[in-house]
Amino acid sequence: MDRFVFLTFDGLSRGAVYAAFALALVLIWRSTRIVNFAQGAMAVATAYAGYSVSAATGSYWLGFATAILGGLVLGAVTERVVMRFVDHASPLNGVVVALGLVLVIQGVLGMIYGNEFRPAGAPFGRDAFTVGGVALLSRFDLFVFAAVATVVGLLALLFRRTATGLRMRASAFAPDVSRLLGVNVGGMLTLGWALAAAVGSLAGMLVIPTELGLHPNAMDVVFVSSFTAAVVGGLDSAIGAVLGGLIVGLLLSYVSGYLGATVAPIAVLLLLVTVLLGRPGGLFSRAAARTA
């Protein structure tokens, strides 16, 4: 029982990061109908920038802010310079361009920083608190939960309570009608990419210290798990992305803990295939509302 409790809290901690990254994928999918396969590479690029600033200044939090702001800028630049000019007649065009971005970003990072793993520090300790002899959560895990909950709350507030959020939703669901009503659809798309990249950068800063460290390919496995979380929850559902992230995190933790880490990727793949076969729109999607 103690092991089950430990694995549950560990899975929720992992799942919170996957939820944040899946949320970034959903933000772009809802506005452009593109799965941004470059999201992981973009997050790594901003993490490198953040940790470079931390190393130069000695302040983790200055580097953390640099990574988030870098994500905002990188996302906006990617949309304005690259993705805006992609022919959207075929959905594959955007996918191919995103995959090309992955190669470019990882190649540039490898040339600048090299291909060896670099240590990435965390702002809080990772020694878990114990209750009744059972290790539960560390201070870093609590920081992860707080950061992800804050982001989810701010995004919900933006999309449900502000005029800008309403314009972003209108631009995503009915771009032509929105233009006729005077909405700057292009500007809303840029803002959507910027916010998504910033959330992805946050996820990168939260997960990289728990993995092997900084590397141009550091987010590849995280992207697979987070993409699965987005599909499980439904690419059109922000709440689904969060719940999907928690489901994938728990699945990975239980399978790794009871069957071994080598079986975990297979479990994620089986979950993805099962959801695609049984409910392709995701467990928490509302497809009817999206196509209405």
TrEMBL record:
GO cellular component terms, semicolon-separated: plasma membrane
Transmembrane as UniProt keyword: yes
Segments traversing the membrane: 12-29, 36-54, 60-82, 94-114, 134-159, 180-207, 227-251, 258-277
Family: Belongs to the binding-protein-dependent transport system permease family. LivHM subfamily.
Record keywords, A-Z: Amino-acid transport, Cell membrane, Membrane, Transmembrane, Transmembrane helix, Transport
Native species: Couchioplanes caeruleus subsp. caeruleus
GO-annotated biological processes: amino acid transport
Gene Ontology molecular function, alphabetical: transmembrane transporter activity
Protein name listed in UniProt: Branched-chain amino acid ABC transporter permease
Location in or out of the cell: Cell membrane
Membrane topology: Multi-pass membrane protein
Pfam families in UniProt: BPD_transp_2
